[in-house]
């Protein structure tokens, strides 16, 4: 049985200490960053090694968005466009789906089966550029339809999408990697931010925002707020899929790592995410994380099933070479 957390690792291959930790703690997933990526053969070996330790059903995740957030880069992988490019393109939906479908092929070949995409945040004027061109547009309707297209492309390529950062990071005037953003917008304004997530509530997975929304819960960031998770994410947005935290090592959160993890699960999350590869911190997360069971396990299984169903549809008509030519003709891939 897995524990309900996702871990990082320090380098290009698992150390003996990491292997022992993973064998004991059995995290549901491993998330990869640039520090973990050198070549296709190396990444494939890393993902296979992780699964040989914790189990074949374990997940391997990555943030492969395109633009400035892509962990797989040249010379071994194409450079994909930032989401905002699709918002400006005449046939943005089709192109967003094609791009995501190609990314899925890249990822699946390496044993990576979860991509933390699409970004469904709707930035407002003056917001911190931590989101910026990672967002598809400034209109929530456009964000919703372009994000849906990207998610469809991933699933038809066999990769699970994770929409983020629910219920919305677009009003943050600071970077949650460095400090805790506090959003003062009223409930009516926040409804606009919820819209892309509501429109995509049928997607298999979502990642929370480390943001305080004063109108919803002035005392805790969404990741650790039962009010936000239960009343907004689950009831108002009507998302009943697999819900994971953003990285627990971000400076928006306070307290030791047991406490950070405990608060996530008390709020109602299914999975805790710890990214930086610090084993001492990861051990604390593992100690506080529950077994992956009950409703959380059911959501994992349903998420996998949803991707499998969509992948069957994707087997029918897809020409990867033609898709690359189409994107290259519009200078959307290099």
Automatic annotation (TrEMBL):
Coiled coil: none
EC number(s) recorded for this UniProt protein: 3.2.1.52
Catalyzed reaction equations: Hydrolysis of terminal non-reducing N-acetyl-D-hexosamine residues in N-acetyl-beta-D-hexosaminides
Gene Ontology biological-process entries: carbohydrate metabolic process; peptidoglycan turnover
InterPro entries, A to Z: GH, Glyco_hydro_3_AS, Glyco_hydro_3_N, Glyco_hydro_3_N_sf, NagZ_Beta-hexosaminidase
A Pfam family per the record: Glyco_hydro_3
Residues in Glycoside hydrolase family 3 N-terminal domain copies: 28-290
Keyword match Hydrolase: yes
Residue stretches spanning the membrane: none
SUPFAM superfamilies assigned: (Trans)glycosidases
Keywords: Glycosidase, Hydrolase
GO molecular function terms noted in the UniProt entry: beta-N-acetylhexosaminidase activity
Family: Belongs to the glycosyl hydrolase 3 family.
Protein name: beta-N-acetylhexosaminidase
């Amino acid at each position: 049985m897995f524990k309900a957390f996702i871990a990082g690792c320090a380098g290009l291959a698992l150390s003996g200490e990491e292997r022992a930790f993973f064998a004991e703690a059995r995290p549901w997933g491993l998330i990869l960053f640039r520090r973990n990526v050198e070549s296709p053969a190396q990444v494939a070996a890393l993902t296979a090694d992780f699964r040989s330790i914790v189990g074949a059903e374990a997940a391997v995740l990555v943030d492969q968005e395109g633009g400035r957030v892509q962990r797989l880069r040249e010379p071994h992988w194409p450079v994909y466009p930032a989401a905002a490019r699709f918002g400006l393109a005449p046939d943005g939906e089709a192109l967003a789906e094609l791009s995501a479908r190609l990314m899925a092929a890249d990822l699946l070949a390496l044993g990576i089966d979860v991509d933390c995409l699409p970004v469904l945040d709707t930035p407002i004027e003056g917001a911190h550029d931590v989101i910026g061109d990672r967002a598809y547009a400034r209109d929530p309707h456009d964000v919703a339809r372009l994000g849906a297209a990207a998610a469809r492309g991933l699933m038809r390529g066999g990769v699970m999408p994770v929409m983020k950062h629910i219920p919305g990071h677009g009003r943050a005037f600071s970077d949650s990697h460095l400090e805790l953003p506090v959003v003062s917008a009223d409930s009516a304004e926040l409804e606009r931010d919820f819209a892309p997530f509501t429109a995509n509530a049928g997607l298999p997975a979502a990642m929370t925002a480390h943001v305080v929304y004063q109108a919803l819960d002035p005392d805790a960031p969404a990741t650790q707020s039962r009010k936000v998770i239960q009343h907004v994410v689950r009831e108002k947005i009507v998302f009943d899929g697999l819900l994971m935290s953003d990285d627990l090592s971000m400076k928006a959160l306070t307290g030791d790592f047991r406490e950070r993890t405990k608060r996530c699960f008390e709020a109602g999350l299914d999975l805790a995410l710890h990214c930086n590869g610090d084993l001492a911190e990861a051990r604390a997360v593992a100690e506080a994380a529950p077994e992956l069971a009950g409703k959380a396990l059911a959501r994992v299984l349903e998420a996998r099933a949803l991707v499998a169903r969509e992948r069957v549809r994707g087997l029918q008509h897809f020409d990867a070479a033609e898709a690359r030519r189409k994107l290259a003709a519009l200078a959307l891939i290099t």
